Amino acid sequence: MRPISTRNGFWRFLLRRVAFGLLTLFFLASLLFVLFHVLPGDPFSMYFDQGFSQQAIDELMHRFGLDKPWWQQYLLYLRNLLRGDFGMSFQYYKPAIQVVGERFWATIALMAASLAIAFGLGVIGGAWMAWRRGTPAEKALGVVALIVRCAPVFWTGMILLSLFSFRLGWLPLGGLRTPGQPITGQWSRFFSLDFLHHLFLPALTAGLFALANPLLVMRSSMLEVVKEDFIRLARAKGLSERAVMLRHAMRNALLPVVTLLAVMAGTAIGGIVLVETVFRWPGMGREIVMAVRARDYPLARTSFFLIGALIVFFNLAADLLYGYLDPRVSRD
Question: Are 259 and 326 within 8 A, CB to CB?
Fold first, then answer.
């Protein structure tokens, strides 16, 4: 076991992780190809009109490469994947990556905002709960977090909609932006007051649903860290309790939370579909459900592959951040 303390060791570790991530994506792409080819039914049959001639059907099958043996389709699929070509969507008859891209950034924005709320409140709240261990306020906060976690996320979303949209009228009912709002580019699409106004309520719903995990993990980690010798040493030096908690205990207690963030960030996109449905958010989660239902395999396969790529990326980022927060972390 060698600590990541030198530049050469860091780059070797980084290259190993990147190679492992690429190998994971290769197996994921292969698995997705197999799964969508063994599903029963002909995906193209849903899009053939009764008036189509056999020649027109054969032409479409040839254009999409469905008339080739499965192994040729697999090799063609891998070759196109390396070139960034994810195939044509059966429904929209345009590149699947283009269809997903239109919804991908909306989902990323919603996911990032919800995780920022969950982990921002969770880290601060968990540290505060450990500091105030045994008090009624600490117990009440834990109970509230568990109640929100156990409640169905669509129920929480409807309660917030009823309160802030129907009754108070402070926030919009859903959607990505106000109808008729001009869009001058990607910046105005995702970085405008109107977008943030629509983003707040669905992000708060998803963030509250995910709050219990970082909150309780941070609390448990803080309770373990405060027993360490360096905490007793900091107190012996005469530092205030606030300084001990903020400058010494919290940094070391963040390590399990970083790992949790990587796991939750990778799975949040797939689990956010209910929030997107309740708030009519035009994201990727709802598109996946519609693509699978319509047997639009290139579109569904592209969506799942992008989710897998995000999981690999977030796990790599977590490993690097883990090593930064604790230099004692070592790798083989």
Answer: no
- For residue 209, the domain's CATH number is 1.10.3720.10
191, 212 contact by CB (below 8 A): no
pLDDT, tens digit (0-9, with 9 covering 90-100), for 169-188 = 888 887 777 776 666 666 66
- pTM, whole model, 2 decimals? 0.72
Structural domain contains residue 106: yes
The amino acid sitting at 245 is: M
Classify residue 332: in a domain, yes or no: no
Number of domains into which the chain is organized: 1
Asked whether residue 331 is assigned to any structural domain, the reply reads: no
Nearest-angstrom CA–CA distance, 156 and 230: 42
- Residue 230 near residue 244 (C-beta atoms within 8 A): no
Dump pLDDT digits (tens) for 74-116. Answer: 888 888 888 888 877 877 778 888 888 778 888 888 888 998 9
Which tens digit of pLDDT belongs to each residue from 278-324?
A: 888 888 777 787 787 777 888 888 888 888 888 788 777 777 766 66
Q: What percent of the chain has pLDDT over 70?
A: 78
> 296 and 91 in contact (C-beta within 8 Å)?
yes
Within-domain flag for 302? yes
pLDDT at 4 over 60: no
Residue 259 is part of which domain span? 98-326
